[in-house]
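Reminder to self: keep the SMILES exactly as supplied, no canonicalising. Ligand is magnesium ion.
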Amino acid sequence: MYIGTTLTNYIIETQRNLPEATGEFTGLLNDISVACKRISDLVNKGGLIGMLGSADSENVQGETQKQLDVVSNDVFIEALAHNGHIAGLVTEEMEDVYHLPKGAPRGRYLILADPLDGSSNIDVNISVGTIFSILKAPDDVEDPRTEDFLRPGTEQIAAGYCLYGPSTTMVFTTRGHGVQMFTLDKDFGEFILTRKDVQIPQETQEFAINVSNSRFWEPPVKRYIDACLAGKEGEIGKDFNMRWVASMVAEVHRILTRGGIFMYPIDEKTKAKGQRGRLRLMYEANPMSMIVEQAGGLSNTGRKRILDIQPEEIHERAPVILGSKQEVERVIQFHQEA
Ligand SMILES: O=P(O)(O)OC[C@H]1O[C@](O)(COP(=O)(O)O)[C@@H](O)[C@@H]1O
Ligand SMILES: [Mg+2]
Ligand SMILES: [Mg+2]
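Structure tokens returned for the bound complex:
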């Protein structure tokens, strides 16, 4: 596959190599890319079309939804619900499983999505994105139930995100086929392959964590960030730089591009709320973990590989520590030593 080819051609070519392929997966990825192109356009136009600011509604997480959270969710449903490629859909913005309209053709895939990630950045024109995870639907289920979605991240057959930043970039991986990056050429509306078989540098000197939570951190995380801040004189023995965009999509994209470690660990604040972390397992942690691992990085809770977690709820949360292998291994070691 050559740099410069379109997403559509890439998918068709990949499918040619999969003897059992029926074309449905190609159709599904095409539906997702259409949804992302539309969301990219809406995000880009933002204030021009009165799309900034909050909607007067809350999602199941108790968060005030942004107008673009709600609209992106609608765009996602519209693009996927009628083409016969999915059997069911779960998103951050809907409490329960979305059931296809009566009579709608059913497909063989289940989708879990964060229609707009980094919502707190929408109104201030900072990069946001869409995250998606693809599972196989159980063959014998006409209308998937919640439990049909509760599968460990290792069962994902594909995962991806679309970043709406200075340019719009679609990044995805299908199991065993590496990580590919496509950039949207808005002139003729096609995603073009701009980087293929992406690998995350094993080493890094850049960490990302919301330091305003430091008083709530567990000792291993405190020890690690103190060591990064201590630089050459510290126990890691090298200087680190820091970044925090507050859009997980942008953090992961930076790490895929130049390495780094991203951390949203469990802390006393989330524990006090009875939560297992800040980020959601099914449509944030799992898809990003598949992408990071396929690009030679690691993704862990500090105690466990994220993709091995057996989910119990569709909106459950998980601690996330991901990125360059050497640093994630170090944080895991600090947890073990603690
Ligand atoms: O507000 P904080 O603590 O910096 O958290 C930022 C994190 O929250 C998120 O915005 C949560 O995602 P949503 O915007 O989809 O709810 C992540 O993208 C980001 O990493
Ligand atoms: Mg999110
Ligand atoms: Mg979101």
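Points to follow up:
Residues 96 and 254 are 32 Å apart (CA to CA).
The chain has nine helices and 16 strands.
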